[in-house]
Structure formats: C-alpha cells, structure tokens
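Recall that a protein's primary structure is simply its ordered list of amino acids. Everything else, from secondary elements to tertiary packing, is in principle encoded there. The following example makes that idea concrete.
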Amino acid sequence: MCNHLVLVVLVLASRITPAHAFCGFYVSGADGKLFNNATQVVLMREGTRTVLSMQNAYQGPPEAFAMVVPVPVVLHEKDVKTLPREVFDRVDRLAAPRLVEYWEQDPCPEPVAFEGGRGDFSARPAGAPSPTRSAAAKDMGVKIEAQFTVGEYEIVILSAKDSQGLDTWLKHERYKIPEGAEPYLRPYVAAGSKFFVAKVDPQKVRFEGDKAMLSPLRFHYDSNEFALPVRLGLVNSGGTQDLIVHVLARSQRYEVANYPNVFVPTNLDVGDVAKQRFGDFYAALFDATLEKTPKAVVTEYSWDAGSCDPCPSPALNPGELQTLGADVLDGASQPQFTPPPPPRSPGGAQKPTPGAAPGAPSRTPPPMRPPQRWGGGFVLTRLHARYGRDVLGEDLVFRAAPPVMGGREMMGPGGKLEREPQPGGVNNFQGRYAVRHPWGGAITCQSPRRGVWGGPPYGVQPQTPVPALQTAFAKRGLALASFLVGGQDTGLGVEGKSPPPEAVKPVGTPPPRHVPGRHTPPPAPGPRASRTEELLGGGLLVAIIVIAVLLRRKP
C-alpha cells in the first residue's frame, strides 16, 4: 500500500497516453475519461510512522471527481494537511539522472607550488456523516469511518466488507468507476485496508486547460508494512506506465524484495547530440537496461539528501524534510534508551539520588527518546520501473540494502572511471553522463598530461548539470548507439557511434592564477631607507604601543 513504502515515494508518468503510475485511482463524477496525470507521491517513514504526500493532477472533465487510495488505518483531520507544490519538484530534480559537461584541462599547465613544497592540484474541519449517506453505506457493507474537509478536498475514510460493495457505494455516490476496478479493489478489501477518498470541489480549484492544479495532500499513520500498491494504479492505465519511487530513510538505502534489482549503467560518455536530447538518450538507455533484465526495478540514485556532486539543484534542507513529514516523526514508534542506573555503594546499596531528602528511595529516570534529527542523515534513493497490466503481477515490496557507490569522477582499477556499482561505507551512487570536450588549445610542453577533466577553459561559459525529467514522455525506439561515444564498455552490448564532442580552446589570454598557499616571489628591491628612518619608524611603533598601554591603565 502507499502507506507501506519507506520514506519518500515519487510516482510519475507514462508515455504517449497520459497514464501515470499512482498508488490508487481516480473516479469521476462525470461520464468521461480520467487519467493519472503527473501524480507525485512522497512517503516518509521512520519506525512505524509513515507520512505520505501526494501532488495530483488529473486530465478529464472539470466536474467533481475523487481519488481513492488504500491506507492501513483510519485517518483523522489532524493527520491530513496540504503542502506547497514546489517540494515535489525539488526531490525529483535532485535525484534524477544528470548530464554534465567537462573540458580537458591544459595538458601543459603552469606548475603550481604550495607552501611546504607539498601538493600538486589540477583543476576539478471534522463533520458527522449524513444519516442518509451512512445508511446507504451500511446497506452495501461500507462504513464511513471519518469525514472532514481540508482545503479544496472533502475527505471520507471508508472501510468495506467486500470489494463489490465498495464499488457499488462509489457508484451510488454518482462516481463513474473505471471499468474493471472491482478486481483491483478486492485484495485490499480482503487485507482489511481502509480507503482514503478525497473528493475535490472544482469551484475551489484552478485549472490550466483541462488539468486541475490541486494542492498537494499529506497524511500520516502508523503501520508495520512496507509495500506500494501499484496494481490499483493500473485501473486508470492507458498502457505502459513509468513508476519512479523515491525513498528517504536515515542512513539507509532501499531496493525491492520481490522483483529483480539492477543499477542503471553510469559514467558513460555521450556526444554533443545528447545536450539537446538528453531525455531521449536516457529513455533509450533505460529501455536497453530493461531489455537485458526484464521486469527489473532500476536503481538510479542513492545519496545523502543533504549533499550532491554534481548538483542539478541544491540539496534538500531541514525545512523541506519537515514539510515532507519529519515534523511528525518524533511521534513515531522508535527504540527508546534508558540512562544507566545510579552507581551503587561498595555494600551493594544504591546511592541516593542527588538532591533527594535523606532516606528517600532512589529513582531511576524514565525512558528517554533519542533527540530529534530533522536536519540530516537521510539517504535519498530513486527506484524506477516501467510496466503494464501484463507485466506487474504484484505490489512492490521494499527491503533495506547495503550502501553503494558509483557514477562519480573517480578512477577505478586500470585508471578507468567506475562504471559498476561498488560496495561502500556510504551511499554515493548516481546515474551520471558526460559530454567531454578535448583540449583545443596549444600544447607547449614535451610531456603533455592528457585526460585530466574539469571546468571550461578561459572565456568559455560553464554549464549547470541537466537532470533527465519527464522521460516517460520522451521519444522511444531511438538507437542508443547514436548517443554514445565509441570505445567504452556500456555493459549492454552496445557500441557507441556518436562522434566525440568538439575540441574547445581558451578564448583570450587567462590572467595569472592565484592559488592560496602558493609561494609569492619577493618584490623587486627598491631604494633602501636610511638607518635613521628605520629607527624612527621603529620608535614610532614603540611609542604607539606605549601610549595604548597607558590608556588602558588610566582609571
């Protein structure tokens, strides 16, 4: 269930048909088609506490509609709130696969000396349900557990004895259930799930064309389960769907337990064509990865949420983590710790508590919670799956996984960039792809040092890393080889055919480099001051010091 995922879940998109993966489905109050369009879900987890945030956009008639999401417990008004939309984009951009641009550094750099002669560095409101509504629900085996309003949402929490009764209740409330929804509801009803039904009043919603710009919803609850009910999202599916899951957990990476896990090939060099068509390139790479391992869930990112390198956008800050649910984690069920008992006297008797009256019994302090840690320690993991009704047979189940590293500008064995994920003490893995421009300037030394990459040469504007966003809408079926530079092992059996990026040379003459700690040549000797001038200068300094001391002693 959406409730079951660990810490952050971001769910996106399909391809041509705007049918997006979603841990629930939409039901319409009008007889028209609705699609899960660009729904994003953020789910934060610690202990047994789950905080689920959803940003919804639907495409269809502007009449009232509702979304249905299975949840494990009854939710109340205090558990639900609305959020700003921007936080979802922040998570998506931070963890998305990225395109970087590097330039080969001057093969004959000016020697840089540092003090001490060491180092040679190169560049780099709650209301009771109406009697009529409650009676109708009871007749159908449906119970209205709670009912309240938050923002533009009229929320009802339902329980049901059977899926057919739930299907009938929604129809009785004049919602057009998608065809074939009852079989998808059945396993959740059998498992005892509750159903979060959020109805929207279109009079309170701003529309852009036929898309409603709805306020994101957030709710929290406690549950021991960790899974994502993606099958229910197939009810509104128009074909193949992309599912992107972001998991935020303290010091922990996650992967799926019931499907194959693979890592996206990383640190691949691409041609200039990828700068204009990065989304198309990544869609081709992703499809090739799934072709090699069908039904796999692909890990695209696992990194500390408070840092990044390179950064398509700033890392998440403590305020954003609180917005996503860290503010309610303190109420979560988590291990407690107890301070050690007071020391005992040599005879074995416990020493009295300091400050207690003579003869008063000693008291052991009550259990204490660990201090709150809103600001750091979260690992952001991005998992990506692509599936249809005939591919995904069960909901995704997640498990903890060990730290992994890869996709950094670090050389592995043989002086080659790390392309395979490696075990590590921290999580530092990302899907990273590079446009590398060879040095185009003059080579002025006998032993040039090639293959050192960093920022652009003088006069060339640097580029910000580009994230691969909305790849579900990218053009499919393009040849992966047309984007890749030849001579590199992709791990997919694809040989690159793209010409290498153009060489770039400096524009103009760079100024002298100023490096902290570098030896500075002494100034050229000038006319020497006379001995009298030197003495006067020193005497003046002594006089100033003496005056200052006298002033400090003055009462």
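The mean pLDDT is 73. The longest helix spans residues 531-553.
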